[in-house]
Design a protein that fits this description.
With 256 residues, this protein is an all-alpha fold. It has one domain: ADP-ribosylation/Crystallin J1 (ADP-ribosylglycohydrolase fold). It is built from 15 helices and no strands. It starts with a helix and ends with a helix.
């Protein structure tokens, strides 16, 4: 979960300012670094899993507490209206918020089912559900010591994502894409081709796409695979979290 939040915060300044260079300052003092909707909804999923209730209630609670985030248009309409029916989205919002699910269940079958539940309250399109399940699967497998090749093969076979492309081949021409099918596979490749946690985040931001969300997804998997997040990076990101967020983090890691 920390990996997702780190990716969101580091990627936030570059969401609409695409960069293609991995050699950037992780914490540039001239750029406003902050949580976005990616982190807020990750906290919402974690809150539900730790404290009970249901996904719809938790998403609404956290969204209404942070109304000024840069919400996607459809999601903003969903939580600000009186109609809270799912809206058939295949946006990558389902994948960016799912990381807590990948940690809290003992079997892959449970993880897949819970990822589906977490997605379908809003993103009930098959691609929206698939994006969430693929990310949760990668986290589950990574924390259970699967190799990168095992993770790659399972996700390709199960979700039909093409993870055999090389980062260097698609990165130069990659552009902003908020669909699951157009951003989740690329975020997973950023993890697969990384050498460590920080390198994974740099890969994702330097795609020049939906930087905060793709770094959030990549970071969530990288944390599970590499075992922890760098303490110096987390200490910088933790500074922008309020007390309620810090409490969720504490409770989440105590639980796992």
């Amino acid at each position: 979960m920390k990996g997702a939040i780190i990716g969101d915060i580091i990627g936030a300044p570059y969401e609409f300012l695409a960069i293609k260079n991995k050699d950037f300052d992780l914490f540039d003092p001239d750029r406003w670094q902050h949580t976005t909707d990616d982190s807020i909804l990750t906290f919402a999923i974690a809150d539900k899993l730790i404290n009970g209730g249901n996904y719809q209630e938790s998403l609404l609670k956290w969204s209404k507490k942070h109304p000024d985030q840069s919400w996607g248009t459809s999601y903003a309409r969903w939580f600000k209206s009186d109609n809270h029916q799912p809206y058939n989205s295949f946006g990558n919002g389902s994948a960016m918020r799912v990381s807590p699910v990948g940690w809290l269940f003992n079997t892959l079958e449970e993880t897949l089912e819970e990822a589906k539940k977490s997605a379908e309250v809003t993103h009930n399109h098959p691609e929206g559900i698939k994006g969430a399940q693929a990310v949760a699967t990668a986290i589950f497998m990574a924390r259970n010591k699967a190799t990168k090749e095992e993770i790659k093969k399972y996700i390709e076979d199960t979700f039909e994502y093409n993870l055999s492309r090389k980062y260097a081949d698609f990165q130069p021409d990659y552009t902003f894409d908020v669909t699951c099918q157009g951003s989740v596979p690329e975020a997973i490749i950023c993890f697969l081709e990384s050498t460590d946690f920080e390198d994974a985040i740099r890969n994702a931001v330097a795609l020049g796409g939906d930087a905060d969300t793709q770094a959030c997804i990549t970071g969530s998997i990288a944390e599970a695979f590499y075992g922890k997040v760098p303490a110096n990076i987390w200490s910088e990101c933790e500074k922008v979290l309020d007390t309620e967020m810090q409490k969720i983090i504490e409770d989440f890691y105590n639980k796992i």
